[in-house]
Design a protein that fits this description.
By secondary structure, the protein is mainly beta.
């Protein structure tokens, strides 16, 4: 009888240990799958819009304005300064924050006229996407696509006898000094043309329409600016140019919320890049490419 009671207690203890082990296994985190060969994939922004704009007119288009009401310009996704006739150009913006969307506009002047065309896009976090292309009298702008969280929308500007009248431009916002900013000035004394091949920000946003230009002719002076966007943040970015005749020129800047400002200018052999300025919370830095 005594041995039977001992066996019963042992069986009960074993059952309790098994139950506890099972509970611990249930509470343990599930093992994550190993990343696919070749590295982890890059996640898309929660909302993004890629604009493809076809200039089907007989005139060049010159950018006179651009800006974002929400979101950030995508890396290497800035709108070009000029769009040649019968050429398509593209640019893109994306959300940059929790539960946000992206909204913006670009305006081009039709060269040789006083007429402008303005493209607008809005891809909100909640709600439907919306677009407009306000073409002046004598032109028409068609649209296709534009659905989804990561949208691609196509516009086609054509000359026509009748077209819609351009709508009023949005009112400008009151300028506010950012916590951190960098205004970059480049003096091109290289003896060569510089053509932009890339530009992007690791931190912050572009300041309004102050974007790196598509082209810098020899002897030209170009300027652009980026600024902090958010609490206790700085701004950091780069712009890359191809030099006619070979080689690339890269400008980098970093104005952190905490710490020292830093800059770098990379030029091909046979050229030099001098830097002046760059201190302070709202910095002005000048690069001279010789």
């Amino acid at each position: 009888m005594r041995m039977s009671r001992i066996r019963a207690r042992w069986s009960a203890s074993a059952a309790l240990v098994a139950a506890l082990a099972g509970g611990a296994a249930a509470l343990a985190p599930v093992a994550q799958a190993a990343p696919a060969p070749g590295g982890a994939s890059v996640q898309s922004a929660e909302r993004s819009t890629s604009v493809v704009f076809a200039n089907s007119t007989g005139r060049q288009l010159l950018r006179t304005g651009s800006g974002l009401d929400h979101g950030c310009w995508s890396r290497d996704g800035l709108p070009p300064d000029a769009i040649a006739k019968t050429v398509s150009a593209s640019w893109s913006s994306e959300s940059c924050g929790f539960a946000t969307g992206t909204q913006g506009h670009v305006t081009y002047n039709i060269a040789g006229t006083a007429k402008d065309v303005t493209i607008r896009w809005n891809n909100p976090y909640v709600g439907s996407n919306s677009y407009s292309c306000d073409a002046p009298e004598g032109y028409e702008c068609g649209r296709s696509g534009g659905g989804g969280d990561n949208a691609t929308v196509n516009f086609n500007l054509t000359a026509k006898s009748t077209a819609r009248v351009a709508a009023l431009s949005p009112a400008g916002a009151l300028a506010v000094t950012p916590v951190r900013s960098v205004r970059v000035t480049v003096v091109n004394q290289s003896g060569a043309l510089l053509a932009r091949t890339g530009a992007g920000l690791d931190h912050g946003i572009w300041s309004g329409d102050n974007l790196p230009p598509s082209v810098m002719n020899n002897g030209a002076v170009a300027r652009w600016q980026s600024e902090s966007d958010g609490f206790a943040t700085g701004t950091e970015g780069s712009a890359e140019y191809q030099m006619s005749g070979g080689g690339k020129v890269v400008f980098r800047w970093d104005n952190p919320f905490s710490g020292s400002n830093s800059y770098d200018c990379q030029v091909p052999a046979g050229h030099s890049c001098a830097r002046a300025g760059g201190g302070g919370k709202n910095a002005d830095v000048v690069f001279t490419v010789n």
